[in-house]
Task: structure prediction
Amino acid sequence: MSATARLLLLAALAGCATASPRAQPMAPDPGEAIVGGPETLFSAALPQEGWKELGHSSHGLKLQLAAMPLFLEIEARYLEPGDQSAPLARLSREAIERFRGSLGDGRVVEEGPCLLGGRPAWRVEVMGKAGDIPVAIVEESAVVGARLFVVHLSGSEQLFARGLAAFHRVADTLSVKAPPGDAPPPGASAAALAKAAAQAIDVERDPAKGAALYARACLARPDDQKLRDRLLEADLGAGLFPQAVSDLRAELSRTPDRFDRWELLGTLELQAGHLDLAFDAWRSAAARPGCPADVFKSLGALFLAQQRLPEARAAFEQAVARAPRDAAAFAGLGEAYLKSRDFARAERAEARAAELDPAEGEIHAVLSEIYGELNRYSDAARECMQALQRDIPKPLSATLEYNLACYQARMGHERESLWWLRQALEAGFDDLELLRSDPDLEPIRRTDAFKELFTR
Result:
């Protein structure tokens, strides 16, 4: 059959709303297993070797190939209001957006009609990057009743081909069913929809269905703040982050002074890799009267990460002006001054942060760095010790132990310096080039003990 004839056949099939589902998956071949089953809304045949289950529910299943970054998922997503009449291509693109958010400039490389378990479906393939790692995604989806059934393969580009056979086998053999009463009750009141949503979340353990029902309740009663809050909680609980962003924007158009919502919107956009949209959210909040310190702290942290130091300082200065006892605001301001090499202001801000929250180890770590820049090695060593006595990430501990070796060497304490250097190396510090060239270690570099450590 030609490609054109196949497309025409699939288009004709897509118009057949009464296409019968496969009642049971085909019998598994040798070496295959049936995933899903009577307790789920789907079942399919899967090559058994190497795949392990990471989690499942009545409406979802996630598998991983050995311990590799390659994942195969089946999902029975409950449709949002209006989705049942939407084109399947649009629903498929929206479904894959849930996975594309972390891919930065992820791009669609192929899409078009297909068959999923014998049903008219839509296929989308995406390429992108997760950090510096090339990532590929392929997804096929079809509508059955009130559900969008999705089969999804994602993983690093080098491993991707290893999962395609399993993906196609699952897609070919997928059998789906919708439970009785799955469709939203026609003409139900907002109260009835909200009750059904709570039932879906608390009893059926289906947060996506709960979110969709809360969305219908909000359409029936758009000014009910409690309903909108429950909708947002359900979106987040179901991992429907693009939908949560859409609902947040709709809510903020009605109540623009909900600063907690602006803060959440910026955070979700940042997690999705939408840096400009995160900036826009926090700037919109910052421009409103009465904006709290938390928004300015988030804005300052984002400016700091982008090395936009004047803007970072201005944002943190606004934060400390609004919350003069907020240790995190002073800590952020201190870091902004440190990166600007304004050590006197950095010391004052970070010392105030340590005074307000003496238990926060990372504040002491930054303060030790400031004292090191000021050549106040005794103070720097004291703050390193303060940080190491608190709960801090392991890589930071190794860095602080290395810094202690440097400070002790600068103060002429050879044995103490070598001891801390040994601790740093045992904790995982592995920057050999810095060990070879750091002028702070010059006082001990010619000793036999240092040469032995470096060789090891």
